[in-house]
Amino acid sequence: MANFPLLTKLAIISFACFGIAAAGYWYELRDKNVALKNLMQRTDNLKIQYRTQYCQVAQIAAYKQQIREIERLAKERAAHLRARPEVTQLIKSIAKTSSANGLTLLLVKPLAKENYSNYSKYPLQISVSGEYSRFEKFISQLLKLQSTIAVEDFSIETKKIAAGQNQLIMNLLIKNYSYEEKKDSNIPSTKPLNL
Hints:
β2 and β3 form a beta hairpin. It contains four helices and five strands. It has a domain at about 85-180: Alpha-Beta Plaits, CATH 3.30.70.60. The N and C termini lie far apart (about 80 Å). About 50% of the residues lie in helices and about 25% in strands. The protein has about 200 residues and is of the alpha+beta class. It has helices at about 5-60, 60-80, 85-100, 130-145, and strands spanning about 105-110, 115, 120-130, 150-160, 165-180.
């Protein structure tokens, strides 16, 4: 190496220094780069988590309002269920609803009461005749009555009334629900949520 020109010696020394620096960088900073990438990934995950939680906290007032509204509606429904159904009043309401919709009430037949652990069902079989377009409005108004009513089953059939004339008849099975309070019930009381 003593016989090499100065420029070649400088090139070999700079190449050796560069190699030592590159090896040092590779061995020393490689682990730190992996740790940095992990920290950056964790930071991104924490940012996403923060945004999600921030949105939830920002909407907590709306959630509390929704809970209050749901509790109010549940109390109203419970009050409707607690009221014992007056079958005669319900039949009068059904008759008024059918005539208001241009339908003819053919049959209203109360069926046997069905008892369950905390509630009862009062089924009614109803038959009305009229135009098809009025049946939907009749059912929707029927469900809006003060009683808690569910349409369990229905069918629509055609009946010949004269030569070339048909009549549509809708048969419904509705059930009116009533809450039966038990004195020794093991059901825990529901308390409003406090957020």
